[in-house]
Structures are given as structure tokens and as C-alpha cells.
Design a protein that fits this description.
Blueprint (H helix, E strand, L loop, with lengths): L3 E11 L2 E7 L5 E4 L6 H9 L23 E10 L2 E10 L5 E4 L2 E3 L1 H7 L2 E4 L11 H15 L3 H20 L9 H30 L8 E7 L8 H10 L1 H7 L9 E7 L4 E2 L5 H22 L5 E4 L8 H14 L3 E5 L13 E8 L2 E8 L3
Parallel strand pairs: 3-13, 3-14, 8-12, 12-13
Antiparallel strand pairs: 1-2, 1-4, 4-5, 5-6, 6-7, 9-10, 10-11, 14-15
Helix pairs in contact: 3-5, 4-5, 4-7, 5-6, 5-8, 8-9
């Protein structure tokens, strides 16, 4: 299968890294070192080589190294589908980040067309027991991995919804003010729902076709309240009919922004929210792996995987199974852990990076091998 991996990664004044340079091959990247040394910061740097705000959802200003606050730069050489790309993403003095691909200015959405990046971070461990917003974000990230244009549809929908909500809060009742906005919400909202359903089907197929040590999740798209029409005209009409109720609420109560991702542990027929903490984690890992397998078939290469502290929350057998699946997939998975013992099941199938902290300055050392 064609590879997708980083040949190099460079950081300048990014988070705790004043300067870091890594030279890489296609194997998984095992980062280890004490808590607070800057391992997750390296994963975050890789995550912003994709559209959006990265795995921490931080502003460009928050990513700059303190106390200098000069701005930051992340550079990478990417091999994707037998082509090479020079990527540079920069923020100057806290300004919104700019992207250049092969020396030319590019929109963030272009990153999603040349690479695919998935991540699993500890903050996602509560995905099944917290609010629907986090699950929608999780689903949209998976959807975006299959359909890069999904991000644009979400932005169009949210922009129109903000304008409509402003009218609702001002108790505007003249229908002429709403028509164009509801037409736009209907069109983009239908595209969002269609993209999400297609992504769920691909995840379902990828889970069903693989033998894995991780549990299968039955997934469905549900509504927080009522029904969400799936075609543009019906959604536009539903928004029009809901105006009086929406004015009372001061916000739009119909549409894909009210969707939720429901998951059930298939083997036990237990909702994910009612599973044990370990089972919930295993379901998340299962979905990330399913997403990666589906992308390998859909895009033509497995994605970059960013797995923050994932090894520490799995028992030895599941850790070994995870490593075997990653290597069989051929993904360049970036993993973090406090000690090298967490990677015993990988051996020479991975490359190792020791990350340390010296007076608030992160240092990286690639000279480590697992013996």
C-alpha cells in the first residue's frame, strides 16, 4: 500500500520547543519522557498539518513559546501517495496561522486534500459521558478525514445560523429576513448530514471487515430533540416552521447542530455511556483504528495517527494488539508515554524519540533504541 508519512518535522518557538528537528522514516514514532517534557506538543505540531485548530483546539497565540511570544513555525516534509510536499505553517506575533505548500500560500483546506491526520487524546476519554457537542466534533473530524469539503459546509452552516440566531434574539418576525439564511442552512445542513451518514457507514464497514482485539461499536446519528430532515428543502421548511418556537428559545432548535453520535458496545448490547472506563477507552481505540482502515482503502494510504498517552491506559495484551494493528496497517503512528517499557511490544518496528525538559525548554533525542 502507498505510504503517507512525515520525512521530517521542524519546530521553532512552538510551545515548549524553542527549536526541534526530527528526521523520520515510515515506522511508528514512539515518544517517551517525563510528564511535562513536551511530548504532546510534538503531537500538536503534527496535528496542525491538517485543517482546523489541532488536537488541543488552541488559538495560534496560545501555541507560541513563552516568554518570547515571537510567533512560531512548524515545517514538515510529507510523502503522500508517492508525492512529496514541503509544508510550512506559521503564526507571526499571535496572528492567525498561515499555510504554505511547496512555497506557495494555501488555504488550510488544502492540507486535508494531501494528508489525513487522526488523533486520540486523554480529553476524549469522557466522550461518551459528556455533552453531545464533543461527540459531534469527534464525528465531524472523522467525516472530514473522508470528505475534506465537509469543513467548508460546516463553516457555511454555522455562519448562517449565527445570523439567524441574532434575528431570533432580536425577536424579528418578518419572514423576509429569514428566507435566504434558511435556504443556506438547508443546503449546507443537508450536505453535513449526508457526509456524516456516509462516514458512519464507512466506519461500520471497516469495523465489520476486520478481526481485532478491540470491541466493535454500533454507531448511529440521532437528534437531541425531534427529527432532523435530511434533504435541503425539508430542512429549510422545518426551520421556517420552527421560527416562533426558536424566537422563544433565542436560538435555532432544528438542524444538524442538534445531532448526536450514539454508540453501543456491540458484543454486550450496552450503550457506551454505561460501559466501564476501560471499555469506553477500548471503543474509542476501535473507532480510531476503524477510521484508519477505512481511510487506507478510501484515500489510498493510512493516515498519520496521533495517540497521546494511549499505551498507559491499556493492559499489556491490548497494548501489544494495538501495536500489531498499527504496524499491519502501515501507519506512521505518533505515540507518547512516560517510559520505554510501554513500547516493549514494538521492538525495532518503531523509531524512538526521548523528550526531556531543561529549565522549561524541551529537548529531543533520536539516538535511543529499544533493547
Amino acid at each position: 500500500m502507498t505510504s503517507l508519512f512525515l520525512h521530517s518535522l521542524g519546530l521553532s518557538h512552538f510551545r515548549s520547543h524553542k527549536r526541534a528537528e526530527l528526521t523520520l522514516d515510515p515506522r511508528p514514532v514512539a515518544l517517551f519522557g517525563p510528564n511535562g517534557a513536551g511530548k504532546t506538543n510534538l503531537l500538536e505540531a503534527v496535528s496542525i498539518l491538517s485543517p482546523g485548530r489541532g488536537l488541543r483546539r488552541s488559538s495560534a497565540q496560545d501555541m507560541t513559546r513563552r516568554p518570547e511570544a515571537l510567533g512560531w513555525k512548524v515545517t514538515a516534509t510529507l510523502q503522500s501517495l508517492q508525492q512529496f510536499y514541503e509544508i510550512e505553517t506559521v503564526s507571526e506575533n499571535g496572528a492567525a496561522r498561515q499555510v504554505r505548500i511547496d512555497g506557495k500560500q494555501a488555504a488550510q483546506t488544502m492540507l486535508g486534500r494531501i494528508a489525513r491526520v487522526l488523533w486520540l487524546v486523554p480529553s476524549m476519554d469522557r466522550l461518551w459521558i459528556e455533552g453531545a457537542e464533543g461527540r459531534r466534533r469527534f464525528l465531524d473530524r472523522a467525516t472530514l478525514s473522508f470528505e475534506p469539503g465537509h469543513a467548508e459546509q460546516v463553516l457555511i452552516y454555522e455562519r448562517a445560523m449565527r445570523e439567524r440566531n441574532r434575528l431570533l434574539k432580536d425577536c424579528v418576525r418578518d419572514p423576509h429576513w429569514y428566507g435566504a439564511l434558511e435556504l443556506q442552512m438547508g443546503q449546507s445542513g443537508a450536505a453535513i448530514t449526508s457526509n456524516r451518514l456516509n462516514a458512519l457507514q464507512k466506519l461500520k464497514d471497516a469495523q465489520g471487515e476486520a478481526e481485532t482485539a478491540f470491541p466493535t461499536a454500533n454507531l448511529s446519528l440521532i437528534q437531541v430533540e425531534g427529527e432532523a430532515p435530511q434533504n435541503a428543502e425539508d430542512l429549510r421548511d422545518a426551520l421556517a416552521q420552527s421560527r416562533a418556537r426558536d424566537i422563544q428559545a433565542g436560538r435555532s432548535l432544528v438542524g444538524p447542530h442538534r445531532s448526536d453520535l450514539a454508540a453501543t458496545y456491540a458484543a454486550k448490547d450496552v450503550p457506551a455511556k454505561d460501559c466501564s472506563t476501560g471499555e469506553q477507552k477500548a471503543l474509542l481505540v476501535s473507532l480510531i483504528l476503524a477510521n484508519a482502515r477505512a481511510l487506507a482503502a478510501d484515500f489510498g494510504a493510512p493516515p498519520l495517527l496521533l495517540l497521546d498517552e494511549v499505551a498507559a491506559h491499556l493492559d499489556a495484551d491490548r497494548r501489544a494488539a494495538l501495536y500489531d494493528e498499527i504496524c499491519a496497517l502501515g501507519a506512521q503512528a505518533w505515540m507518547t508515554g512516560t517510559g520505554m517499557e510501554l513500547y516493549e511490544g514494538l521492538g525495532d518496528r518503531a523509531q524512538y524519540v526521548h523528550v526531556t525538559d531543561e529549565n522549561g525548554l524541551s529537548q529531543v533525542d533520536q539516538g535511543t533504541t529499544l533493547t
